Amino acid sequence: MIEELKKSVFQANLDLVKHGLVIHTWGNASGRDKTTGLIVIKPSGISYKSMRPDDMVIINPEGKIVEGKNKPSTDAPTHLLLYRNYSSIGGIVHTHSTYATSWAQAGEDIPPLGTTHADHYYGEVPCTRKLNENEVNSEYEINTGKVIIERLGNIDPLAVPSVLVNCHGPFCWGLDAEEAVYNAVALEEIARIAFYTVVLGKKEPVDKFLLDKHFHRKHGKGAYYGQDKPK
Ligand SMILES: [Zn+2]
Description:
Mean pLDDT: 95
Shape: globular
CATH architecture: 3-Layer(aba) Sandwich
Number of helices: 8
Helix content: 25-40%
Bound molecules: zinc ion
Strand content: 5-15%
Low-confidence stretches: none
Largest sheet: 7 strands, antiparallel
CATH superfamily: Class II aldolase/adducin N-terminal domain
Order of helices and strands: HEEEEHEHHHHEEHH
CATH topology: L-fuculose-1-phosphate Aldolase
Strand order of the largest sheet: 4-3-2-1-5-7-6
C-alpha cells in the first residue's frame, strides 16, 4: 500500500508542475496512508527533473523519518499538524501559484463571486492573519499550520479545501493527494477569475441561494452533478 502511496505522492508533485502551479522547487505534496497513518511527503529541495518515487520520504505522525534517504520538505510540520487536526483529509499540497498567492499577499479572503467558485468552495476561500515576529522566529512551520486551523475554525475542511496563508500562499487538501492537486488547480482558476471580477468593479458575493444550489448539487447527500456512482 505504502509503495502505491509513494507513487501517487510523487505523481501529485509532478502534476503541480504540469499544471503550472509550481516552478523550481516552490511547492510540495503529501499523502496519508489510511491504514497506518504514515505520511509520504516530497523531499526537501530536490529538483523535479531528477526526482523519483523512491525519493519520497515516509514519516510518522510525529515527523520522525520511517523510510527514505532524504530530508522531508521543510513544510512537513505544517502538513502534519493539518493531518492531526482533520481526520477526513488524506492529501495536502502547498504552492505559490500566481493568482492564489496574490490574494494571500494582499491578505484578502477570495469572495465567492460566482458559480465557478460555489462549485468548489462553500463560501469564501479564507486568508489567515499574519504571523507575528515570535511565531515566525520560533516553530514557524508549526505556527503556519496553527493559523490555518485558527482561520478555518468550525468550517468543514472538505467544504472549503484551501486556506491562503497571509503574505505566503495557499495550502490545499482533499481525500487524497490527487484530489488536493485538483483543488489547487481549481483554486488558482477561481483566484484568477475573482481577480478580474474585482478589477471590473464587483466585490459583492454571489446570492446565498445560488451558492447553495451550486455547492450542494456537487457535494454531499443531495448531489446530482455527474454520473450516478455504481451501487
Ligand atoms: Zn511556501
